Automatic annotation (TrEMBL):
Residues of the full protein shown: 1 to 519 of 709
Catalytic reaction(s) noted: Couples ATP hydrolysis with the unwinding of duplex DNA by translocating in the 3'-5' direction
Protein name (database record): DNA helicase RecQ
Keyword DNA-binding: yes
Organism: Pelosinus propionicus DSM 13327
EC category: isomerase
Family affiliation: Belongs to the helicase family. RecQ subfamily.
Length: 519
């Protein structure tokens, strides 16, 4: 069985060895076991269902949300001699019928389908006469509202499976590994005692950098100028920001394209192709860009804004360096970023539970931007991968040569302010009180008469928020798990207030002077 799989790998794909995890996943599916494969972007999930598809009798259905890419994926398969097709809303009824007819005649081994199809009764009836050996569900996290890309149409997959006369083997594939998403995938996609494989979340060739408190535009211009020949993606949070950044770079003569959901299909398609075929070097985009795009030589991914959670971040950053060559993932954190993401969550129609969950995931993202620890370690432990890694020497924290500084005094000022406002307010308000701001809310609450009012007036507001965020990320402070998280003192912070321990942190160079100002 394994030899047959290896032969296909060589014959059709031209690769000599399997990547970590691929062999086990393929074997599990061929052994008739429902399988859940959790692999990071770029790790090579597609082969894991395409190879079994060729070895099993009948046909494999692949459910995928990537309608715009199905044609490319199918063309690529046909190109390597694998009989495949797709069925989605881009086809006319007669084209759909023709493909179903061909499928009945056994002309395909793989059929890509959009999840919406499964809701159509006539399609269900037509497809039931096929021998479906394997149902592969790509981007399986789309079934879960706890994932970062919930698609209600994925809920139809479970019902479809139960309606089939002969239950196929089910393979679910995703890059999202949180417990709640995993549980949803198993339950909602009706996996039966699945084998679960989680592989290699570490992408050694990627370096990770977080930059706080720098002018984003200046940084980006400088970076792309020194990396002019390279291909890179710049992700921004809003369409407007994408348009602005694109215009700026275009006017300055950079080879740049843009992509967001507000652009006409044709224009998006055009830029996407130009980027994939290396006719333009830089793609400025919202998170609408990139899912399923297999461009191997992306040398950098810059996040112009912080994304909403770690899953989204790692998936987007992971589009760099798929060819295994050294590549950079840079996140430019701005104090406005968490506020914008929070606003976006608040604007949704999610119920309170889901909003609270999204906000707590957002906080982990903010923690990533402020942790003094190895960034790679932070990512790996978020995805549940335990590692012996203490320092990776390939992230901005491991390479940080700022001196460890005793910031106990400033930390105590922050902690006492948290106590003075009775642990009932969020980061922004506490920062305003410490700054001595004349903010309406601060004055209304009478916080200008607190003893901690204006205690850190020599710092800028973003610097104070930054300091608070760092103290949250290092567990001196904590945020409540609620729709409107409030800052509370953690046991580590209490010990500092009682002068039992000190706080040492690597403080960014720009703010070090302020520690002196305050003395
Ligand atoms: P994912 O779906 O996990 O993001 P893909 O299936 O698109 O990843 O694979 C990413 C890239 O890795 C593709 O270019 C694919 O051809 C390549 N790849 C997959 N498996 C192997 C392998 N065993 N050896 C070499 N390259 C591989």
């Amino acid at each position: 069985m394994l030899t047959a799989a290896l032969n296909i790998l060589k014959q059709h794909y031209g690769y000599t060895t399997f990547r970590p995890g691929q062999q086990k996943i393929i074997t599990s599916l061929l052994n008739n076991k429902d399988t859940l494969a959790i692999m990071p972007t770029g790790a090579g999930k597609s082969l894991c269902f395409q190879i079994p598809a060729l070895l099993l009798p009948g046909v494999t259905l692949v459910v995928s949300p990537l309608i715009s890419l199905m044609k490319d994926q199918v063309d690529a398969l046909n190109g390597v001699g694998i009989p495949a097709t797709f069925i989605n809303s881009s086809l006319t009824l007669s084209q759909v019928n023709e493909r179903i007819y061909n499928a009945k005649c056994g002309r395909y081994k793989i059929i890509y389908i959009a999840p919406e199809r499964l809701e159509s009764e006539s399609f269900q009836a037509a497809i039931k006469v096929l021998t479906i050996s394997l149902l592969a569900i790509d981007e399986a996290h789309c079934v879960s509202q706890w994932g970062h890309d919930f698609r209600p149409s994925y809920r139809a997959v479970g019902t479809f499976i139960t309606s089939l006369p002969n239950r196929p083997i089910i393979g679910a594939f995703t890059a999202t590994a949180t417990t709640d998403v995993t549980q949803d995938i198993i339950t909602l996609l009706t996996l039966r005692k699945p084998d679960i494989y989680m592989t290699g979340f570490d992408r050694e060739n990627l370096s990770f950098t977080v930059i706080r408190g720098e002018n984003k535009q200046d940084f980006t211009l400088k970076y792309i100028t020194t990396n002019k020949e390279q291909s890179g993606i710049i992700y921004a949070a809003t369409r407007k920001e994408v348009d602005n950044l694109y215009s700026l770079l275009y006017k300055k003569g950079y080879s740049v394209g843009k992509y967001h959901a507000g652009l006409p299909d044709k224009e998006r398609q055009h830029y996407q192709e130009q980027f994939i075929y290396d006719n333009i070097s830089i793609m400025v985009a919202t998170n609408a860009f990139g899912m399923g795009i297999d461009k191997s030589n992306v040398r950098y991914v810059i996040h112009y804004n912080m994304p909403k959670n770690m899953e989204a971040y790692y998936q987007e950053a992971g589009r760099a360096g798929r060819d295994g060559e050294p590549s950079e993932c840079i996140l430019l954190f701005g104090a406005q970023d968490p506020l914008l993401q929070r606003y976006l969550i608040e604007q949704t129609t999610f119920d309170t539970d889901r909003k609270t969950n999204e906000i707590s995931k957002l906080q982990t993202m903010v923690d990533y931007c402020h942790t003094p620890e190895c960034l790679r370690k932070f990512i790996l432990s978020y995805f549940g991968e335990t590692s012996d890694l203490t320092e990776c020497d390939n992230c901005s924290n491991c390479k940080d040569d700022n001196e460890l500084t005793d910031i106990t005094l400033d930390a105590q000022k922050i902690f006492s302010c948290v106590m003075r406002v009775k642990e009932r307010y969020g980061t922004t308000l506490i920062a305003s009180v410490l700054k001595g701001s004349k903010d309406k809310k601060v004055l209304q609450l009478g916080f200008d008469s607190l003893s901690t009012y204006g205690l850190l007036k020599n710092y800028t507001l973003p610097e104070i928020r930054d300091a608070i965020n760092r103290l949250i990320a290092t567990d001196y402070l904590m945020l409540t798990d609620s729709e409107y998280p409030v800052v509370k003192l953690a046991p580590k912070g209490v010990a500092v207030l009682k002068n039992q321990t000190k706080v040492w942190q690597k403080v960014p160079k720009r703010t070090q002077k302020i520690t002196v100002d305050n003395s």
